[in-house]
Amino acid sequence: MRLRNFQHLQSVVAPGCSQYFYYGVANYVFPSRWNNSDVGFARGVYVSFGIHPHLAAEGVSKRQMDQLDSLTDSHLCVAIGEVGLDYTTTCICRPCRNPSRCKEEARRNQEEAFINLLLLARRKSLPVIIHCRDCGDGSAAKRTLELILHHNLADMKFHCHCFEETIEELTAWQQLLTIIFGVSGKFIRNNTGLEVIPRIPPNQLVLETDSPFLSLFAWCPVNHPWNLPVIAAEVSRLRNIPLSVLMWTINDNALKFFQMPKQRE
Fold this sequence. Notes:
Number of helices: 9
Strand order of the largest sheet: 1-2-3-4-5-6-7
Strand content: 5-15%
Distance between the termini: 35 Å
CATH architecture: Alpha-Beta Barrel
Shape: globular
Number of domains: 1
CATH topology: TIM Barrel
Structural class: alpha/beta
Order of helices and strands: HEEHHEHEHEHEHEHH
Largest sheet: 7 strands, parallel
CATH class: Alpha Beta
Radius of gyration: 18 Å
Number of strands: 7
């Protein structure tokens, strides 16, 4: 299903449920869809703009950077992202005659885009939503941290998107001065991250859905923000805390991190 923006998603999966949506951040990471973003048209919806590493692997143009510079001037833009490194990116060559060279070029392009977007975020005083993915060996996270530290950007605010890695990786990310870890419902379906989720400090935890991706259930092809209570219930069980306490904590963390005004008490 091809979904254009938050309003389209809501009309498809939750028509009439706007009164149950307080606030959230919609990530626009595909340049072809930036113009479809519903900035200012949906109550409580803030936005972030970035370039997904899969696309950054092909190179980011000056025109795209200029467009991002303009888009992030909106008072409803609360972050830049997703940005980062994704080592699962596949070559677009058909057929690929030199996979090793293509892989090196893709990673080089991703790193260049990542640094440029970090510098843009610093100039705009915006947090960064990090997309970091590899085959499970932690190499993408290691390199991402190396780049941040090498360029003296560790004092920025970072949101580690869809985090379900190891306790060792959690500790490594905590070298950054201000970081939160977003837990999505991926762990429910894949039974992963069960050890690390209880170890995330309360003040560094937020929940997310990554909708319309990462469907929680095989019978539900489209994920959506109204699945968040399901994720929250499972996280509260793993952390052995009341659901009400968890909800208050993650809401407070998100509001402070993204500097969003409270929509309702």
